[in-house]
Write a structure and sequence with these properties.
Number of strands: 2
Radius of gyration: 15 Å
Number of helices: 6
Distance between the termini: 36 Å
Length: 162
């Protein structure tokens, strides 16, 4: 990894830790047994643009952040960030656009979170309908945020002072 990639990955990992720890109370949507923290996927999604290694690192940071604040079930779901982000990073590396990669990995994300809660005592309906569809919707919302954020940051608008 180049120095710029390491620094960018570290900053995104810090964000993936900070979102559940500092903003989980404000950005959390809770419809038992489903919960979603808005923007929690954004660091993993943006890491897909950096490199596959970055995607994995940021996904692991997200897992740790959710483990510290929300416990093992939510952390297990957050662990799926590693896999959808890695898949997205590999698709982008092969030339797929960021937007298409986000759409292609949405089923991996939703199905992964549904499957990972089954051994944790969730019933099929709860796992696939509540968690799976909830995750898919959350993924799409965070994808829109990620796309918008990347467009703003890459355009240089964040530098204007005026």
């Amino acid at each position: 990894m180049k120095a710029k990639e390491i620094v960018t990955s570290a900053l995104l990992t810090a964000l993936s830790l900070l979102i559940p720890i500092a903003f989980g109370g404000y950005l959390k949507i809770y419809i038992p047994p489903f919960s979603a923290t808005l923007a929690s996927h954004v660091p993993s999604m943006i890491a897909m643009l950096v490199s596959p290694t970055s995607a994995v690192m940021v996904g692991l940071g997200s897992t740790l952040g959710f483990l510290l604040i929300m416990g093992p079930v939510i952390a297990a779901r957050a662990f799926v960030h590693v896999f959808f982000a890695l898949a997205g990073a590999l698709l982008i590396k092969k030339g797929l656009s960021f937007q298409k990669a986000l759409i292609y990995v949405a089923p991996i994300h939703a199905l992964g979170e549904a499957l990972i809660v089954l051994p944790l005592g969730f019933e099929l309906y709860t796992a696939f309908v509540v968690v799976g569809i909830g995750t898919l919707l959350h993924h799409l919302i965070d994808s829109a945020v990620s796309i918008g954020l990347v467009k703003v940051l890459s355009s240089g608008l964040y530098l204007s002072s005026g």
